[in-house]
Amino acid sequence: MSHKSTISPCLIKFMPNSPLPLSKDDPCLNVYAFDLDHTIIKPKSPNTKFSRSADDWQFMSFNSKKSTLDYLFDIIEKDPIATIVVFSNQGGVVTVPRTSKSCTKYINKISLVLKAIKSDKRGDSLLSRLWLYAAPKRPKALVTNKNKFTFPSASKNDIDDPKIYEKVRKPMTGMADFFKTDIDNAYGVSELLPITTKLNWIYYCGDAAGRKKDFSDSDKKFAENLNVEFRYPEEVFQG
After folding, report:
1. Contact of 32 with 179, CB cutoff 8 Å
2. Which of 127, 155, 149, 124 minimizes the C-alpha distance to 136?
3. Which DSSP state fits 65?
4. Where are the domains positioned within the chain?
């Protein structure tokens, strides 16, 4: 498996086992960030917004000649220090327990997406640069003021925060904070190797932009909260 999956009550992560090597002299990454559903993939089943099964998905095509996957390959081919990160709200997924039907379906779905990428001859080059984060639904059994969870924060200090579910869901920037911490950990930030990875955010692309046809503006607000340029899928995947 190209990625290690981590499932916590408030977050699902898929991180590459062998991330793109960085220069010690200039440990910089250009970050291209995306939403997942209806931005990179969509259900194969017609006239449905959500996948019905783990294999009910396909890469989208805003351009009849190229898929969204082709464009992701274009990005890493043109930019040698590009990293692709996906931030997705998954309101239909519950990770408590981890064996829940919705969690199992989502984990299997992402595993199939990664497998499809690997099957392409260019796949390994993208997989080493691909990070995926998903914010699941708060289980109904949990009560905010009575149940607290401890998670690693961006500063590596544990936090005890009953509002963590809200903070990791877009438009809040919690998922990006976890990504920043994971990047530093992946590239060996320590007393023996004090390298701080520099992240140059290029843009964030998503379909929830507050247009008449959109279900919300959470993607556009997420980009604003990150202070990152926002782009529509139609812009990125038709260029």
Report:
1. no
2. 149
3. T
4. 3-236
Token pair in block for residue 229:
């340029």
CATH entry, 3-236, from 3.40.50.620, 3.40.50.1000, 1.10.10.10, 3.20.20.70: 3.40.50.1000
pLDDT in tens, 153-167: 433 333 457 788 999
16 membership: H or E segment, kind and range: strand 12-16
- Report the DSSP beta bridge partners of residue 6: 13
Kind and range of the H or E run holding 132: strand 130-136
pLDDT digits (tens, 9 = 90+) for 167-211: 999 999 999 999 999 998 887 755 545 567 889 999 999 999 999
Q: Looking at residue 160, what is its pLDDT?
A: 53
Q: DSSP 3-state assignment of 186?
A: helix
Sign of CA dihedral 71, 74, 78, 82: positive
